[in-house]
Automatic annotation (TrEMBL):
Keyword Heme: no
Transmembrane annotation, as ranges: none
Pfam short name (any one): Neprosin_AP
Organism: Dioscorea zingiberensis
Protein name per the record: Neprosin PEP catalytic domain-containing protein
InterPro entries, per the entry: Glutamic_endopeptidase (IPR053168), Neprosin (IPR004314), Neprosin_propep (IPR025521)
PANTHER family referenced in this protein's UniProt entry, alphabetically: OS07G0205500 PROTEIN, PROTEIN, PUTATIVE (DUF239)-RELATED-RELATED
């Protein structure tokens, strides 16, 4: 009997010990979860500034109209007492020349807009900011990496080793110029909605303004359109910008997701959906983007279309670009995460190869650079580059209507691209 009592007492003690241990484990596991929740809440509060007006977009986005002086840029220690430059000192000469040129398709005259405009507009002295949700942040690999590109994502045409380029899983089809000092770039970019195979992949079409070497200190300003399920939680085609001054390591971000870009425009929201989109064999739509360095103040400005000067990146954000760019690139980029050990079927551009031409393949037209006299001109000595032309390709040309142009893109995985 005593033995039985001893055993049951021993079992009870063991059971109690196990309960205590498991409670401690749950508490320990709970602490990081609670901490993460708090970190996410704090970050959301930092990003989502108080709005004077809120607009619900048909695509589910919430656009907050935030007072221009309360935007995230002014959290930057160097911008505490910054006087907002409400307009650039100078515009590049020749900026509207292409409006005199005949368009190949009258459909292009239709104005491209953003979907949220359907439900309202932001008041004067406010800027529209796409609200970040908890889910947006939780999709990121970490809170620290939210809103950032991965390291080593710049197409480097001069690299002799294609394996080195592919190691980041990013693939490109681009046109580029180098060997001069560049003070800006412009392009009219055909807009599509490429299919994305995996949520962690994206497809974009953009221009890059690059300063420095392709090392750890690379400076880059980027703008264009992208489809990125990870970043936005859907497959919509969205206007975006990006900047970095250390090759994507610690500085910079997409859109307004960190301090940096100062927006002055109340009509265009970074990261919001673009509408309408080109259709294969149907109506074609394009957007025009200009980024240039103000010769007086030294800030890098961005303009969308002929009507919207969006804002600027203060020159102190950069080292090399505080002076000028050494290379300009235009074109497409996708992430190839090699699902199932095969090439991704994520599309670039329209998902069709350049040789299919207008209405079927995606294009950049009227590509230009800004020279030291603040003039827009056709780039000299344009090169092209792609890591795997059987997956995504590029073909450039020149004519009276489109100036310097190229078609680019492709379907990704196919019998010729494994």
């Amino acid at each position: 009997m005593a033995t039985q009592l001893g055993v049951s007492h021993g079992l009870a003690t063991l059971l109690l010990l196990l309960i205590c241990l498991s409670s401690a484990a749950v508490a320990a596991a709970g602490r990081p979860v609670a901490r993460q929740r708090l970190d996410v809440r704090t970050h959301l509060k930092r990003l989502n500034k108080p709005a004077l007006k809120t607009i619900k977009s048909p695509d589910g986005d919430i656009i907050d109209c935030v007072h221009i002086s309360h935007q995230l840029a002014f959290d930057h220690p160097f911008l505490q007492n910054h006087t907002i430059q409400m307009r650039p000192s100078f515009h590049p000469e020749g900026v509207y020349d292409e409006s005199k040129v005949a368009k190949p398709d009258s459909n292009q005259q239709q104005k491209i807009t953003q979907l949220w405009h359907v439900n309202g507009k932001c008041p004067e002295n406010t800027i529209p900011i796409r609200r970040t949700s908890k889910d947006d942040i939780l999709r990121a690999s970490s809170l620290k990496r939210f809103g950032k590109k991965k390291h080593r994502t710049i197409p480097h045409p001069m690299s002799a080793d294609p394996d080195l380029i592919n190691e980041s899983g990013h693939q490109h089809a681009i046109a580029y110029v180098e060997g001069d000092k560049y003070y800006g770039a412009k392009a009219t970019i055909n807009v599509w909605d490429p299919k994305i195979q995996q949520p962690n992949e994206f497809s974009l079409s953009q221009l890059w303004i690059l300063g420095g070497s392709f090392g750890e200190d690379l400076n880059s300003i980027e703008a264009g359109w992208q489809v990125s399920p990870d970043l936005y939680g859907d497959n919509n085609t969205r206007l975006f910008t990006y900047w970095t001054s250390d090759a994507y390591q610690a500085t910079g971000c997409y859109n307004l997701l960190c301090s940096g870009f100062i927006q002055i425009n109340s009509e265009i929201a970074m990261g919001a959906s673009i509408f309408p989109i080109s259709g294969y064999g149907g109506s074609q739509y394009d957007i025009s983007i200009l980024v240039w360095k103000d010769p007086k103040e030294g800030n890098w400005w961005m303009q969308f279309g002929n009507d919207y000067v969006l804002g600027y990146w203060p020159s102190f954000l950069f080292s090399y670009l505080a002076d000028s760019a050494t290379m300009i690139e235009w074109g497409g980029e996708v992430v190839n995460s090699e699902p199932d050990g095969q090439h991704t079927s994520t599309q670039m551009g329209s998902g069709h190869f350049p040789e299919e031409g207008f209405g079927k393949a995606s294009y950049f037209r009227n590509i230009q650079v800004v020279d030291e006299s603040n003039n827009l001109r056709s780039p000299k000595g344009v090169g092209t580059f792609t890591e795997q032309s059987n997956c995504y390709d590029v073909q450039n040309g020149n004519n009276g209507d489109w100036g310097s142009y190229f078609y680019y893109g492709g379907p990704g995985k196919s019998p010729n691209c494994q």
